[in-house]
Amino acid sequence: MSAAEPRVLFVSSEIFPMAKTGGLGDVAASLPVALAHSGVDIRLMMPAYPSTFEHVRGLAVDRHFDDVAGFGDIDLLGGRTPSDLRIWLVVCRRLYDRPGGPYHDEYGNQWPDNLERFALLCQAAGRLAADGGDWSPNVVHANDFHAALIPSLLNGRASDVKTLLTIHNALYQGEATREQLRSFGVPSQRLERFGSGKLSFLSLGVQQAGLLNAVSPTYAKELQTPEYGCGLEDLFAARARDLSGILNGVDYELWDPGHDPHLAHAYSDRNLAGKASCKAALLEEMHLDTSLSAPLIGIVSRLTWQKGLDLVIRSAEHLLTAGARIVVLGVGEKSLAHGFRDLADRHPDRVGARLEHDEALAHRIIAGADIFAMPSRFEPCGLSQLYSLRYGTVPVVSAVGGLADSVVDAGERGIAEGATTGFAFTELTPQAFLAAARKAIGLYPNRALWQALQRNGMRQDFGWDRSAQSYRELYGRLLST
User: Fold this and answer.
1) The model's pTM
2) Mean confidence (pLDDT) of the chain
3) For residue 212, what are the CA distances in angstroms to 172, 186, 216, 223, 461?
């Protein structure tokens, strides 16, 4: 007997353009579109933040649930995203109708009731899955800790609905006490079976979900080690047979230098002339020395310890001495922001820092830079290196997670053979990063080799079709059990 066709409820705390703080928002926007194009009946769910309403059309109350696990009555507003997918917004003014972002207030402080806010998202998904209305899922695809209570809720409520939990970043787990989890509706027997281990939304999800996947093959292996498992490595290792790795993809309709509305000039792997024009425009915009002969290093990132940007700050003087220029876009930890601001103040014609969110500028930096720096201490998948490859901006990366899976450092011979796409280093030190960056800077004047390296990256295919097929196979595996 063949498995049923998947009807998938895709649950995420952020989905671009309704809400985005990082790669999760991009993935949650693009992957469902690719799945829908492949024939999957997929619908989305996220909280009704103030920012969601301007992007979702045709909103109307679709479902009403009474007294959801002590949260009170809630409405689900149904509508359509800009990509024409069906979406439900979970309405709770007390928890979601506030200024700021999905996780932090307008001053950058984490919301103190985040556990409650995302427990409600999980409850809403569980109620919808068990509701049996005009459409109900047979698979709930939960993303990260924000949705990771769903398997525990469904296993006691609608056991015929299968669950897939995707781990985008195991560092963030939603740690909670037993009392909190009980108050959020998690059955006591689920907590008793967990024993004395570290309790969190994510740890319960890892134990209870039907299948698990990480957002790159290497990260799926890393999660089973003390170095990267963030305290959950034993849980991941115990479920190794149920844990797969699927590299994220890129929406090439949004990320294509040949048709990017944010760029000063279009270009492609067949005609790179427009990239120099993008670099000139970026240097002018950032008020830097406009010499095109100096290699320009770009950084677009959250400014966090995870991203290894302290390695860049500690190496910056050496990079500038080697002739490079640096542009940075991002927000995050005050120490990193201060470090980049200090560099820009001391070298105003060679370092540009914009400590803010700016989606259009992100595109311009990735297009206008020559080198893209991504020295992450760990990187479940990473998207910026995939964008930079398509834009002919050579990545310098640490060989971890999805960076190891997507950037090939095969030396100069590999450039001629079409294999080399960037520069990678393995030791997470300023010296190792600097050595890799210097290799890139040293190769840059060799225009023939450099352009061959750019074209190698631009010809890689990290579109969503292959990844979507892998997710379809996971759905099929769930429904055949």
Assistant:
1) 0.93
2) 95
3) 16, 20, 12, 11, 25
